[in-house]
Amino acid sequence: MDDSKIRQHISRQFNTELEEIRHKVLVMGGLVEQQLALAIQAFTTNDMETAELVMRRDNLINDMEVEIDLECTQIIALRQPTAFDLRLLLTVIKIISELEIAGDHAERIAKVAIKLSDTEGKHDQYHEILHMAELVKKMLNGALDAFARMSIDGITVITAMDEKVDLEYAGIVRQWVTHMMEDPRNITRTLHSLWAVRALERIGDHACYLCEHLIFMVKGEAVRHLSQQELEEKLNA
Fold it and tell me: What is its subcellular localisation (predicted)?
């Protein structure tokens, strides 16, 4: 699907409003991607300045979520859209909510980085989460790219990555718990670190939810709670 479906209105102003909404969602998504990258950088390199930057910029994401939500609500009330246009606006409202939550998780990672700077003990195993972080970044970027293209082609490739993220998360938890048992001095530090890894795993989940919302937008079908196999079968039917 391309974006031709939102270029067929008699009202040019309506076209403009929808295009502006889409643009703002992508800007918001780009900011969340930046927040995630900076939070991981702060966490893995003990960069307090970057961690504080992530925390300060979280309000920008919150403000954008409120602004876009209000604009969508106003368009629905004034334009009374139907069919694809209505699904687009409803999807945008859901997407910005997922992005706002993902931004909160990125901020949580940054907060953990700051806590670790004041915690005794040593834990230099943060390189273990870098591969997991790359997977999550790809999921988020892929979902936003699909929204930009107004297409669900290849969307199951993105959702399939969530299982890999979950496996990475489980592996890190097991390994870090072992580190705690081996050296009790690192218990507090490792517990804080596990909260950051959990936040990263949750961002992957929200990237999956973005994909589910996009499927509703394009096909008008709810696919929440389907397994990966069921999702693939449904989209390939």
Answer: Cytoplasm
List the alpha helices (DSSP H) in the chain. 12-45, 48-79, 83-117, 130-149, 155-182, 187-219, 228-236
DSSP string, 54-100: HHHHHHHHHHHHHHHHHHHHHHHHHH---HHHHHHHHHHHHHHHHHH
* Boundaries of domain holding 135: 3-236
Number of domains in the chain: 1
Its pTM stands at: 0.92
Give me 42's structure tokens: 């702060």
Contact 178, 184 (CB under 8 A): no
CATH number, domain of 113, equals 1.20.58.220
**Residue 39 tokens, joined:** 């939070």
What is the distance between the alpha carbons of residues 105 and 94, in angstroms, rounded to a whole number? 17
Q: What does each of the 237 residues of the chain score in pLDDT, given as a tens digit?
A: 444 454 455 578 888 999 999 999 999 999 999 999 999 999 998 899 999 999 999 999 999 999 999 999 999 999 999 899 999 999 999 999 999 999 999 999 999 999 988 765 555 567 779 999 999 999 999 999 999 999 999 999 999 999 999 999 999 999 989 988 888 888 888 899 999 999 999 999 999 999 999 999 999 999 998 999 999 999 987
